[in-house]
Write a structure and sequence with these properties.
This protein is α+β, with helices and mostly antiparallel strands. Helix 1 (about 30-65) packs antiparallel against helix 2, helix 1 (about 30-65) packs across helix 5 (about 160-180) and helix 2 (about 70-95) packs across helix 3. Helices cover about 60% and strands about 10% of the residues. Strand 4 (about 375-380) and strand 5 (about 385-395) form a beta hairpin.
């Protein structure tokens, strides 16, 4: 998933940037330098604990492999090493400004029972690299501790340079050994996060549908049933007068309103025009309901998969609602086209601008939904300069009819 770029902070790299970019040396003893000094001085006691844990776990496990508890002891010890690595990532994040994604967790339940748990633990690359980190770090932390103590007393003028150089080595070690195993590990972590977004969005949509049915069409149909029941009683009593006619007329009005509400609700779930005629016609339909004139241009040689088509439709629908409510625009445009294996959407208006992902206009939710399917959502909205929203979705071909 493409991530937005961030300006580098004072410790080098943006808040989500895990590239090995080393910050420049500083002359002043500022707060970042003091954080680095605190990290280097506290590393020795923590490294000693980690080293003792790793060596003891390996020695006991290896010595007991002839028994039934040796391999399980190593597997459990590797899981414990993961916890130590998590603490070290947090310390590096707080004191060195190193932002590293958490690796995907080991499965809590294994299909193979105990042997599945054992095998997953023994082949865990994250745990083994955490053990290697603890073994390597002890001699390095002894060296850094020995260098930092005299530097605090007699090498004060060059202390920032010494602290920065030693801290950069620690940054490189943390990135190399405590990062997710590879690109696949990082991708798994992203997908697990996206899965939560999809689940939350689906639950919110179900609550909205339930609320709309309960407060809208359902209430009207209940009133309709009561009204028709009263009219039936009066007809059975022989009171076929103007009162009954008025009651029937009112019931007829309730039927029309309920049908309209059900149509609106169905359109909000999945519009029939999208299913029958595709994205071009569906976007033209939603554009016709916008309060400003909208020009729709769709250049699609074929129809994408139903799920991608639906996400594209609701993205444009939400953006056009924002234009109607917030933009003060006089015109807008919607362009949709395919480029390689991506479906691109661009919605523009000439309104007041100033839109962003954190102003409560629903754009943050759109960005999360697109991100959950490996999409991209970019907003360009300078104050007074109109708004341009560009969205990308992965193109997946529509399956033939009758195929799952």
């Amino acid at each position: 998933m493409t991530e937005p770029l961030h300006a580098p902070d004072a410790t080098g790299g943006g808040p989500d940037d895990d590239r090995p970019v080393l910050p420049p040396a500083r002359f002043a003893l500022d707060r970042h330098t003091w954080k680095e000094i605190a990290y280097l001085l506290s590393s020795f006691p923590l490294a000693l604990v980690g080293f003792v844990y790793a060596v003891t776990m390996l020695a006991l496990g290896a010595g007991l492999t002839v028994t039934v508890i040796g391999l399980p002891l190593i597997a459990g010890g590797l899981r414990g090493a993961r916890l130590i690595a998590r603490i070290e990532r947090g310390r590096a994040r707080a004191l060195l400004g190193v932002r590293i994604e958490e690796p995907s967790p080991l499965p809590v339940r294994n299909a193979g029972g105990f042997f599945g748990w054992l095998w997953n633990g023994l082949k865990d690359p994250v745990g083994w690299r955490a053990v290697l980190y603890e073994v390597i770090r002890l001699p390095w932390s002894v060296l850094t501790f020995a260098l930092m103590l005299p530097s605090l007393l007699v090498l004060w003028p060059v202390l920032p340079f010494i602290a920065r150089g030693l801290a950069n080595a620690d940054r490189a070690m943390v990135r190399a050994l405590l990062s997710p195993s590879d690109e696949l590990e990082r991708r798994i972590a992203e997908l697990e996060s996206d899965r939560g977004v999809v689940v939350d969005t689906a639950a919110a949509d179900l609550r909205r549908i339930e609320r709309d049915l309960h407060d809208g069409a359902q209430a009207r149909l209940v009133n309709l049933a009561m009204g028709l029941g009263l009219a039936k009683e009066k007809l059975l009593e022989g009171q076929a007068d103007e009162t009954v006619a008025a009651m029937v007329d009112e019931a007829h009005g309730e039927v029309k309103l309920a049908l309209q509400e059900l149509r609106d609700l169905a359109r909000g779930i999945h519009p029939a025009v999208l299913t029958d005629r595709g994205l071009d016609a569906a976007l033209s339909s939603v554009a016709s309901r916008c309060t400003v004139p909208v020009k729709v241009t769709a250049d699609l040689p074929a129809r994408p998969a139903e799920a991608i088509e639906g996400i594209a439709y609701f993205t444009v629908s939400e953006l056009l609602q924002n234009i109607s409510k917030h933009s003060r625009a006089t015109k807008a445009s919607v362009e949709v086209w395919r480029s390689g294996d991506r479906l691109l959407i661009q919605v523009q208006d000439d309104g007041q601008g100033g839109a962003s992902l954190d102003k409560g206009t629903g754009m943050a939710g759109l960005a999360e939904r697109l991100g959950a399917v490996d999409g991209v959502f970019v907003v360009d909205s300078p104050e007074g300069g109109g708004t341009t929203v560009t969205a990308e979705l992965p193109w997946r071909d529509r399956l033939p009819v009758g195929k799952d």
